[in-house]
Amino acid sequence: MAFDLSGALLDAWATNNRINEYLLRNLPPEAWRAAPPGGRGRNPAAIAAHMHNVRLMWLKAADKSAELPAKLEGDGFGPEEAVASLEASWRALESVLRTALESGGAVKGFKPDAAGFAAYLLAHDAHHRGQITLLARLSGHPVSRSVNFGMWEWGTR
Description:
Blueprint: H1 5-26, H2 44-61, H3 79-102, H4 114-138, H5 145-150
Helix pairs in contact: 1-3, 1-4, 2-3, 2-4
């Protein structure tokens, strides 16, 4: 049986979203809005909002504006709202990826192709997960060792 690269990329995108959810649900509550060192930059809540809002930017570029979830901004949302927003933007981008993979690999507004777009999306989220865990540690509210290792359990998440 041939390896289904398109299906594997979509599966990896889904796992990536579950890893984001796992981190946000297991982030110590004290870390959620903890000020970054030196008071400059984003806190974990703002990073989660940025992750979602960048996805919205790509959805607009791909002409999915009619299906856009709400932007995540301000100080009135918690981890559960961030998880729900990331879920919505993940699903919308999954549709963009699926369509691109099924129709020749082009993603409007992104070069070179759908595989590169999937890699970009995964790398962006992973970068920000690293920032969130670092900020939590630097603020004195680190994620547990089991959560840190749990983010790498892609075979079971």
